[in-house]
Amino acid sequence: MAVEGLERVSPFTPMTERLGVLDASTTAALIEGLADVAVTLDAAGMVQEVAFGSDDLRADFGGDWIGQPWLATVSLDTRPNLEALLDEAGYQSITRWRQVTHRSARGIEIPIQYRALRLRNAHGPIIALGRNLQGLAALQQQLIDAQQALERDYWRFRQVETRYRLLFRMVAEAILIIDAPTQRVVEANPAAGQLLGEAPTRIIGRPFPEGFDTDSTQAINGLLAGVRAAGRGDDVRARLVDGAEEFLVAASLLRQENAAFLLVRLSPILSESAANAPPDVKARYLHVLEQAPDGLVITDADGRILTANSTFLNLAEIATEQQARGEPLDRWLGRPGVDLNVLMANLRQDTTVRLFATLLRGEYGTITEIELSAAAVRSSERPYFGFFIRDIGRRLHSEPPTTPEQTRWLDQLTERVGRVPLKELVRESTDTIERLCIEAALKLTGDNRASAAELLGLSRQSLYVKIDRYGIVADHHHAAATAAEEPSKT
């Protein structure tokens, strides 16, 4: 039934009735006008003719396709699509759209979407009509780039938010974020909940100030009003209704997009008696160490300085502790690479070293004789070492006592002058001095042969050979420990 005022829509009339039979030139012009690329193929898939709908495509591809297999003009990854298109043209008069890419003369790949039409019969020529998808591909790439940029921004904002929330929770000060128009709490950190005697989740959504006495409430409201109007205000004192503790309340204005928030900080005010209370034992202990007349240095397991007191800084001629922090201690101590290694080896074995004599070199060339004691602290996290350094440069030294062995050796040397050639006396004296130096090094390092070898500048094997040669016998306790540690060398 026809509706009044509307015309009846008739079915689509076949093109043969409307257009009739087109001649060859009209058909060719129609194809060239409708398609960006038109390719004529023979039954074997060889390119016979090519027509381009724009000068840009003609410049990109030129006439290199003619006489070539059409499959050779597309990239390898899209060749299966073109093979499927040609197979489908074998049994259908017109195929579906399939996308391939051609490499242009500029070296870029241009996407083309083709639809094929076979003329006359199954063995007749094929005409492929193509649409240039460069514009669509560019839009798709822009969409992908925009999506990736959004994802990067999203994850960056997530990381910033995570750091903010972690800092907000870990900060020791009580902080509240308040919505400026309604003056209700939006966020509160754990410190604020502990200070106000409530869980942070229970504070959120409640009006602020709440729970303060009348004077404090008026003062806080005045502070918040001033901050909303001028962006800043003077800190005020406040006190809870049921508490004797007093707070210092500070506020600042925070704008985010079109919303305004108030950042409120609550700081406990110590009473005068608490402020004047003496420091605890550990604080007094640290203060004494900082002011001690002897130098104190604490290093990590690698001998790098973690902290040092002012006495050490004066000895090393350093202005601030920051200049020493992170530096190796042997930069200033004794012989670089020797004395500190000897000390560390003994500390790892015995945990303490006492009265180790060496030198301390200042930054400006001053050399100070020092006496060093050290202790190792075994921590659950990582070990560290403490070094106590005493200036002995002005100490009155008594002459070291001459041992009977040294006296006897000097007497024997004097008696043999004139009886034995000088060359032989020098050789025997060299051997005796070498043996005395080895004994002194072993005594200095507590009979630790590895440390003694490092102190003397010898290899361990050379030191072991010389000890056996001179028949030097170490202390039984340390010799047994050394033998247990190095069974292959003793």
From TrEMBL:
Q: What is this protein called?
A: Transcriptional regulator PpsR
Q: Which GO terms fall under molecular function for this chain's record?
A: sequence-specific DNA binding
- What's the short name of a Pfam family annotated to this entry? PAS
Instruction: Report the SMART domains cross-referenced here.
Output: PAS
Cited InterPro entries: Homeodomain-like_sf, HTH_Fis, PAS, PAS-like_dom_sf, PAS_fold, Tscrpt_reg_PpsR-CrtJ
- Sequence ranges assigned to domain PAS in this UniProt record: 160-206, 281-322
Give an example GO biological process: regulation of DNA-templated transcription
Q: Which domain of life is it from?
A: Bacteria
